[in-house]
Amino acid sequence: MLAGPDEDSGVRPQVHVWYAVTERLAESAMTEARDLLSPAERARCDRFRFDRDRRDFAAAHALLRYALTVHEGAPASPWSFEDGVHGKPFLTPGQSALEFNLAHTNGLVACVLTHGGAVGVDVESLDRAVNGDDIAGRYFSAPEILGLQELAGVERATRFIELWTLKEAYLKAIGAGLSNPLNDFGFELTGSSALVFNAPAGVARADWQFALFAPSAAHRMAVAVRSDRAVDYAVRSWPSGTAVFETAIRMS
After folding, report:
1. Per-residue pLDDT tens over the stretch 102-134
2. Furthest-apart CA atoms within the chain: distance in Å
3. Nearest to 77 by CA among 117, 121, 46, 40
4. Is 241 left (phi over 0), alpha (psi -120 to 50) or beta?
5. What is the pTM of this model?
6. Based on the structure, what is the number of domains in the chain?
7. 92/197 Cα distance (integer angstroms)
8. Which of 62, 87, 107, 152 is an S-S bond match for 33, by CB 3.0 to 4.6 Å?
9. How many CB atoms sit inside 10 A of residue 92's CB?
10. What is residue 3's predicted lDDT score, i.e. its pLDDT?
């Protein structure tokens, strides 16, 4: 069972990050993933039009059930979930005190679990076809826009995705939807590894920890954790459950 740290122990909160590059998953793994889903999840999965979307949905929800089982020792299938006001899922009361979050995009799925505090995760594909400059102009903070303008080409497009995943991870951690203002907070990514959180009014920067990962050459993954202490990230791949020596490319 995944134990939470004592508030006064000085031990860093443990944040467990699981991911799978779905394009690499064998058919047998996908069959097993579908078998782990609840009837309601299978029904939702079947409503997706494209095979890749059904694949990623099934893999994401099976990954979450598997990770919960590893850390809490209960069977994978019986886990039940409810949705918050803005759609953030949580475990039906009485099952576990774990905080978790789930994300999927084309080719990559991820979940994060911790007893350390509210948590959010977001994943995005670097080849996502969007007008980054237009979106940034409407939703990014002034320092984020200035940082983007200093870059060009692939670097600029990659930085947009990195900032977007960080913003989404924070919003998911606090349980807010995209109707929440996105330009009243932001991130500054400088040098080769620096990550600074410019918190919104009324929020202390020191109460949040962030990490940005590159789980494949084509994706970015961001994790947000409400914690006033530095946290330790343990990263595992699925379906093997093998620990991955995946170091964050940026951390706050």
Report:
1. 999 999 999 999 998 899 999 999 988 788 899
2. 50
3. 40
4. left
5. 0.91
6. 1
7. 32
8. 62
9. 10
10. 44
